[in-house]
Amino acid sequence: MPSRHYDPSAIEDIKILKARYFRYLDTKQWDKFADLFTADAVGVWDGFEEGGSRFEGGALIADTIRRKCADALTVHHGHMPEIQLTGATSARGVWAMYDYVKMPEVTFEGHGHYHEDYVLTNDGWKIHRLRLTRLSQTIIEGSGASMLEK
């Protein structure tokens, strides 16, 4: 369904925001990674454990991902964005995703979607709400139980 708001430069800026999310995560640039979220951001991850995980606050989201991934080799891909501007300073997006995560105790790969809300701040577009839904997650080696302990 077409949006009443259309600004190609805003859509491109949101694509760059998400590209930075993946790059900063995979290259462990944690200070820059934390700056991608609003202070009151909400992050929800489905698929790691029954009921999923929910984190409130941009700093907590970034710190949780840092703790889980600091010692891991990670490769994240985001594809086929569906971005809709919902207002002059708000937008919504869905991204198909693939990730490969090699931790000391487990290696897995997964497929799914990021469902996100964005807001335009004085510092540019930020992630305000993030929900990762997994369609598949395959343990390549090790046990997935230790993923949850970090």
TrEMBL record:
Domain SnoaL-like residues, every copy: 10-131
A UniProt-annotated Pfam family: SnoaL_4
UniProt xrefs under InterPro entries: NTF2-like_dom_sf (IPR032710), SnoaL-like (IPR037401)
Protein name: Nuclear transport factor 2 family protein
Organism of this sequence: Parahaliea mediterranea
Upper lineage: Bacteria, Pseudomonadati, Pseudomonadota, Gammaproteobacteria, Cellvibrionales
